[in-house]
Amino acid sequence: MDWPAVVATLWERPYARLGPLLTAAECRALVALYDDDRRFRSRVDMERHRFGVGEYKYFDRPLPSVVEDLRTLAYARLAPIANLWAEALGESELYPAGLPAFLARCAAAGQKRPTPLLLRYEAGGSNALHQDLYGDVAFPLQLAVFLSRPGRDYVGGAFLLVEQRPRAQSVGEAVSCRQGEGLVFANRHRPVRGARGFHRATVRHGVSRVESGRRLTLGVIFHDAL
User: pLDDT, tens digit, for every residue of 88-137?
Assistant: First the structure.
């Protein structure tokens, strides 16, 4: 993976494609886990909470090995980017180099529940623009891995990002990814260079309406929840 290119892209816009991270077989294996409630700590009906139309389930520990590996390895690559962003925004607290130390920081703040999740949308499903924050400790980047095949398993359901910059119109992006492809994105704020240095841009993400079929995604959130 060309990480310097990923870093450069994340300074330009609120997301970067990572290319294929999982094989088709690994995607099918994760999809098959969805109906095994023993692997999850909770289920959320999105329509009930006015989050959209669909549902998602948070994995319980131990996480599936492929999810644990993705979370650990991706964090180690993304922590230096997060620290550069923090410095650009004038933040004093930086992120540890490894995921275990960061999760220990989460635990010290009372955030001990795992947050990687599977999201499932049927025809008519969608996800309102939002940010995945679960306490005072939060990592500024997030990973999505697309488990279904666009155009075959489902139609529609683009991944959406909207960035709001100070004193400017919001900028929207709609991204469609292949099965197994990873996307890293800002999940709260990111630094954007202006005439007087960097300023804070707010980013929200969601999913457009699924026109037909079924769409499943793996969400890898690095901070734990209260």
Answer: 999 988 999 999 999 999 999 999 999 999 999 999 999 999 999 999 99
Q: Helix 65-88 to helix 3-12 angle, to the nearest 10 degrees?
A: 50
pTM score over 0.85: yes
pLDDT tens-place string over residues 152-184: 999 999 999 999 987 788 999 999 999 999 999
Range of the domain at 81: 3-220
- Please check whether residue 225 lies inside any domain of the structure: no
Within a domain: 105: yes
Tell me how far the alpha carbon of residue 204 is from its chain's centroid. Answer: 11
With a CB cutoff of 8 Å and minimum separation 6, the contacts of 215 are 120, 121, 125, 148, 153, 154, 157, 207
* Phi, psi (degrees; rounded to nearest 5) at 170: -70, 150
Number of domains in the chain: 1
Rg (CA), the chain: 17
Report if residue 158 sits inside a domain: yes
Q: Which of 219, 212, 118, 205 is nearest to 156 (CA)?
A: 212
CA distance between the termini of the chain: 33
Q: Is 82 within 8 Å of 143 (Cβ atoms)?
A: no
